[in-house]
Write a structure and sequence with these properties.
Elements: H1 2-29, E1 38-42, H2 50-62, H3 70-78, E2 83-91, E3 95-102, E4 105-109, E5 113-116, E6 121-122, E7 135-137, H4 143-158, E8 164-169, E9 175-179, E10 184-188, H5 192-207, E11 214-218, E12 226-229
Parallel strand pairs: 1-3, 4-7, 7-8, 10-11
Antiparallel strand pairs: 2-3, 4-5, 5-6, 8-9, 9-10, 11-12
């Protein structure tokens, strides 16, 4: 009985050994034995280009179905500025399937980058085509926090038929807003949101003077504000 059991153990070990050798040989032959015939890319994108994606895929695709590194493909695609998320998988026997999710910019960040809905910064080429997006400026590392504040400001302005064009927070944490009409609001460092709300409450009074156009409102005073007319 013991001899029979030992015999089966030896046979199993030989089978495992043969399987391992076969797998190693298959991987060594790589693209010659199991080439990648199809690369299926899913996703809607308008800023990514096929050439950018192709350059990332080329080396790995040429390695063959077994040797292609899915993690390397994923990392390479994520390094492209316009890629927000990507999923990569093998589909037996000759296909690599890729799902690409493109960044969706909602504001400009300073003079060099863009922010998506979550406040993630990405820096693509040719920012000139996004000049119509609102401009947000602030200290490095404050992107997410300031974007949330900006959204609240935009919502309140829309209630008064006003549109935010720019939101600037300098190194001293002083706030300045610029509206699409050209109006500039200086809110300063202390309780800027409270001052902004004060302006909105009194805005109907200012609008009564329809013969004149507001150019600048300085709200850095504790109990009032100064108005400059065009």
């Amino acid at each position: 009985m013991k001899r029979l059991k030992l015999k089966w153990l030896l046979i199993s070990a030989v089978i495992v050994g043969i399987a391992w050798i076969s797998w190693t040989e298959m991987k060594a032959q790589g693209a010659d034995l199991l080439p990648i015939k199809y690369v299926r890319i899913e996703g809607m994108y308008q800023y990514l280009t096929k050439d950018e994606i192709k350059q990332v895929l080329l080396k790995q695709v040429m390695a063959g179905f077994l040797n292609a590194d899915m993690n390397a493909i994923q990392t390479g695609l994520l390094n492209l500025p316009w890629v927000a998320q990507v999923k990569v998988r093998r589909v037996w026997p000759d296909t690599v399937e890729i799902k690409v999710y493109e960044q969706y910019p909602i504001v400009r960040w300073g003079n060099t980058g863009l922010l998506n809905e979550q406040g993630d910064l990405f820096i693509p080429d040719n920012l000139a085509r996004f000049n119509k997006l609102p401009l947000l400026k602030g200290p490095e590392g404050t992107e997410k926090k300031l974007l949330q504040v900006m959204k609240k400001i935009q919502k309140k302005l829309l209630e008064h038929a006003l549109e935010l064009q720019g939101f600037n927070v300098n190194e001293r944490r002083a706030w300045t807003l610029r509206l699409s009409s050209g109006l500039e609001l200086k809110l300063g460092q202390k309780k800027p949101l409270k001052k902004f709300n004060r302006f909105l409450i009194t805005l109907p009074i200012l609008k009564k003077n329809q013969s004149r156009v507001l150019a600048k409102v300085d709200l850095r005073y504790p109990n009032g504000y100064a108005v400059t007319w065009k």
